Amino acid sequence: MPEIQQKLSEFLETLSMFTDENQRIDLLISLADKFNTVPEEIAKKPYPDENKVPFCESGAYVWVKKNADGTLKLYFAVENP
Amino acid sequence: MKIEDRKYAHPEVLVSTDFVADHLKEEGIRIIESNEDQLLYSSGHIPGAVHVDWTKDLNDQVIRDYLNKDSFKKLMSRIGASNNTTVIFYGDKNNWWACYAYWVFKLFGHVKAKVMDGGRLKWEIEKRELTRDVPTYPETKYKAKERDDKTIRAFRVDVLKHISAGQKLVDVRSPEEYSGERLHMPNYPNEGALRGGHIPGAKSIPWAKAINPDDGTFKTSEELKKIYEHENNLNTKDDVIAYCRIGERSSHTWFVLKNLLGYDNVRNYDGSWTEWGNLVGAPIEK
Question: Best interface-test mutation with A: which of B37, B38, B39, B97 has the largest number of A CBs within 10 A?
Fold first, then answer.
């Protein structure tokens, strides 16, 4: 958890350095470009409601799998018709 | 089914993704993307399309109203559209905001306007080209008219008269919002109201009934008549006012009634429930 908090804090700090809206948009999109959608072996469309993230403007989905070492792996998918 | 086979009253206002793909570089056409998701255009759009954002470009930045004649003129100049340009709208959420933008452009009487059937969804499903290149067009001189707030736009005073006269009202929100069970859509807590329910006499016809969810296209004329006329007793001679929360879903329904079913008298009450549900003394039904 502390590692995630640190990464989030660093990202927020980077984002705050961009005051121009278009640059902020570019930054968010460059982050989004690194996104890999959930692999088919975990989930296929149509994605189930139980994995849907409530209150998200887009249709965002999340899956959690346990790794052998006990850590968790998160997978995401986004739909925005 | 092809657009020309769906027996719409005005099929010429709807174009297919094929049409847009074939006319991407045509002079005299301007493709406009209008979305709910503000990042969507930047993440990829139809080549040559410009972005018209409903919050920044179509709404007054201080008072709750649409842009004025001067601002509309500047907007058209920025996107390189002349009075003779055919603007083609498309967007996310099954063309909610595309229809809204179309409606706003019609307030200013821009003649040549169309909507791309299926919106972003269909374009993406068909794996057509998307680009991040933002085009720039030479500024144009656009002769703007005064905004017409009478013909296709309704205000709360019009709605009160409408109720007294027993005229038809269409509530296009979800059934839970219509009944008052919900005061706002789950994902839009900032568009709530102090009171829930609907305008007395309004029929509940959720906007999404008009589209095919798999690809965002509009249903055929026959299917639409079944929904609006057989099931809900509307007909082309009626004077209809449509509303939702802030007038965007209802502009989608306005587009359907006006252009696809050919209703002569249909207006969008853009104040909608965010106004009516907060208005002191406004009559409400549950």
Answer: B39
B216-219 contacts at long range (C-beta below 8 A, 24 or more positions apart): B216/A81, B216/B94, B216/B95, B216/B117, B216/B118, B216/B119, B216/B120, B216/B121, B216/B122, B217/B117, B217/B118, B217/B122, B218/B6, B218/B14, B218/B117, B218/B256, B218/B260
What's the whole-model pTM score? 0.90
As for the ipTM of the complex, it is 0.71
Find out whether B270 and B247 touch, Cβ atoms under 8 Å. yes
State yes or no: is B244 an active-site residue: yes
For the domain with range B3-125, which CATH number is right: 3.40.630.10, 3.10.290.10, 3.40.190.10, 3.40.250.10? 3.40.250.10
| CATH tag, B153-276 | 3.40.250.10
CB contacts < 8 Å between A and B, how many?
29
Q: Where are the domains positioned within chain A?
A: 1-34, 36-81
- Residue B179, token pair as written in the block: 């009944």
Q: B25-59 pLDDT, tens per residue?
A: 899 999 999 998 888 999 999 999 999 999 899 99
